[in-house]
Amino acid sequence: MTAQDIAAAMRRVEGILQRRPGAGMHAEAPASARWQGGTRVVASHANGIEMATDMPSDLGGSGNGVTPGWLFRAGFASCAATCIAMGAAALGIELASLEVVAKSRSDLRGLLGMTDTDGARVNAGPRDVELVVRIAAAGVRPERLRALVQESYRCSPISNAVASGVPVALSIEIDSE
Length: 177
Fold this sequence. Notes:
Largest sheet: 3 strands, antiparallel
Radius of gyration: 20 Å
Shape: globular
CATH superfamily of the domain at 3-17 and 68-164: K homology (KH) domain
Number of strands: 5
Number of helices: 5
Order of helices and strands: HEEEHEHEHH
Strand content: 15-25%
Distance between the termini: 49 Å
CATH architecture of the domain at 3-17 and 68-164: 2-Layer Sandwich
CATH topology of the domain at 3-17 and 68-164: GMP Synthetase, Chain A, domain 3
CATH class of the domain at 3-17 and 68-164: Alpha Beta
Strand order of the largest sheet: 1-2-3
């Protein structure tokens, strides 16, 4: 799709949502993860696409797959990049290049359920996350590109979920064998 096609699609959807705001709330395709043995898990989309994860050999895995934490960073980076590309299209900016790199640091003790020296449980999630955006567009001033990235970041669903700490409902269903 060209930038013009993306902008036209966005305008069509925006027009619908202005007339019927309630149409914006929708259930998203669930992600399903099925354990394959060891630390290998296969995540599946409703459309049939699958992605295998595994842990490094240091943690008992094969080390042959990406980790679930990497999928988080990949989702974060790709969501931000998608929103930036959509924002550029809406503004008529023809991007020459766009790359978003998501970095994070985590304390492995949290994954293992360990406590800190003060007895408090160590957080298993990332301690910090950084998104590095590299962007170029011929003839577009750096301040305009910076504003595009900042505004698009504010529209990124994953960025918003992380920033707002979206509540998670945990439901447990026990299957009989």
